[in-house]
Amino acid sequence: MKVVGAGTAFGLASNGATARGDTENAGDETDAGDSSGYEIKNTVHEVRTLIGEPTHPDRPADFFYQPTGLHIEPGDVIQFVFETPDHTVTSYHPAFGMQRRMPTGVHPISSPVLGWDPKTLPDDLLMPPGENDDGDSDDEDDAHGETTMLADSDDDEYEPKPDTWLSAFEKPGVYDLECAPHEAFGMAMRVVVGDETDTTFETSDTEELPEPRVGPVGLSRQVLTDPNLEPETIVREGRIEWLDLDANQQPETTAEPENENPLT
């Protein structure tokens, strides 16, 4: 796992160079990079950090990565786009006091807490950019209660942009990631690189996981043991959306049969 880019100045000398991501190239088999000439030749996949209406009574809101499960090929890059702020991308690793939930021999990563790209904000800005609540968005995700933080439509003096963080995943295997500030609320995801799906930590039973702080904390224990995030399922489907998880399924409502005889 190699850090190949960040929206802010942050690097891990043992893991690779840093460079700004290019959100327009996410998902394409093309180059990504900045004016320094650092190029990524492999496919770039986009993962967004989002906040939505709660689908669980223990959550004040849904904090999640979209998609929550992703299958990629060795050497591919994931570009994390911080469409809502105050999130991290952190690997489960003993260096951070957690059970290793990634292949052995791979360095851990942890992004800084990211949000808006500070270079796109005025120096004298006092309050964060507001939410776009005009209700006219064509984004199909809006129907699922996802919130994308956008600039107020009336303010044309600046155009805030989400910060980005890029990491290359080179070794095949299963990688579990979490957001340090929101892990307890279930903000975790799984990446399967290649076709290697065997792990020492995979379990469908939260009681078999190590106790919290060594194992996943809070609702992330439930997320990472969801049957829809089983590595084989992720490889077969390619990507798993947040609302695909069993815990987030909305119960189907069945209409009461109409009484044909109003007098009975």
How would you characterize this protein structure?
This protein has helices at residues 220-224, 231-237; strands spanning 2-6, 32-33, 39-40, 44-52, 62-66, 69-72, 76-82, 90-91, 146-147, 163-169, 173-178, 188-193, 239-240. It is mainly beta and 264 residues long. A hairpin with a 5-residue loop joins strand 2 and strand 3. The longest helix has 7 residues, at 231-237.
Order of helices and strands: EEEEEEEEEEEEHHE
* Integer tally of domains: 1
Largest sheet: 6 strands, mixed
Total helical segments? 2
CATH superfamily: Cupredoxins -  blue copper proteins
Please tell me the overall pLDDT.
Answer: 81
Helicity, as a percent range: under 10%
- Count all strands and give the number: 13
| CATH fold-level topology | Immunoglobulin-like
- Provide the CATH architecture: Sandwich
What is the percentage of strand-forming residues? 15-25%
Which overall shape is indicated by the principal axes computed on the Cα atoms?
globular
Gyration radius, in Å: 20 Å
| Unreliable spans | 8-20, 28-38, 132-140, 149-155
Broad CATH class? Mainly Beta
Class of secondary structure makeup: mainly beta
C-alpha termini separation: 68 Å
